[in-house]
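Researcher: For the annotation table, I need structure tokens for Carboxynorspermidine dehydrogenase. Please keep the output clean. Sequence:
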Amino acid sequence: MSKILIIGAGGVGNVVVKKCAQHPDVFTDIHLASRTKSKCDQIAEEVKGLYGVKVSTYAVDADNVPELVQLINAVKPALVLNVALPYQDLTIMDACLEAGVNYMDTANYEPKDTAHFEYSWQWAYQDRFKEKGLMAVLGCGFDPGVTNIFCAYAQKHLYDSIETIDILDCNAGDHGHPFATNFNPEINIREVTQVVRHWKNGQWVETPAILDDKCIHFPFDYPEAGVKESYLLYHEEMESLVKHIKGLKQIRFWMTFSQNYITHLKVLENVGMTRIDEVEYNGVKIIPLQFLKALLPDPGTLGTNYTGKAVIGCIFDGEKDGKRFKKYIYNVCDHAECYREVQAQAVSYTTGVPAMIGAMMMLKGIWTGAGVYNVEQLDPDVFMDELNKCGLPWQVVDFNGELPV
């Protein structure tokens, strides 16, 4: 049916390519590019052995717009799926505009020199994509992505108005390492060391970062994973959901962290290893966080011995036909099962599968339009059906538990 160009050959890129190869009726021609072509070649070799599907591979510098344009023009894809670093979102969007190709990503832009991420930089492309008749879909991983789709589904089918949303992300898995991050260490550590924000009564409320003793956290009993300490965290999907969910008075994001993780991260921060500014060492300028990334395990290699579950979902409190009630929509994903299927751990799987489904929605013409979209602005129904078919089944249950006020 369509040709796709995937940019990024890390843990998520591996999942995306293999899931695309499982749907040859949709993805008839798969192309994979990364700064390091050998990573692409390894994935292509695995795909050929598993599915008998050819993947064409390329080296590209995703920070270089002319180089990206040259590749896109050579491949001529119907869609560019960006699973590279968030720093590279804007250059890839610029290249898609110049080459006249639709765009999708899984995480919003953040500048390299500032640990701050928001959608404003990408929303600013609205008119340019609209004028070119092109579609850009932002944040189609799990969170953001599936969590936004859960919200769209709840708004369409379960509620007349939603008053509060709590997004809860639990990784109850064990990778066997003393300390490791489940996705790019540089991005992960920048994310969790920021000041926390949540939305309440029309404004953003700031609270201490998770490494601060005054941070907000509580124990939550997750389906199949049990009780885990969950920390209030800022996450990008809240920024778009406050614009698109009717009647919303509060939205919060919670993520689980073990005490071991918190302790390691506190030590690293205290000794300066989470800094993102340059320091001079032996006459060479280095960025401590990038050096730390080189020392930590590659998230793409964690799946081998990973056990346990990841549980991600949304708790809604709202009204339908004058009645007030709470619902919980969630997915449970098993690390070991993900590895058996696509040689990846569940954090990569839960990002890569929705990215593939989102690409399917665009290539099939189910999601159409000109401009820049967050996924909750698009129809959730077929996407939700595909989650059940493609390895991320979801549940909707009544919620009678307690959340912090």
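Researcher: And a one-line annotation?
Model: The longest strand covers residues 309-320.
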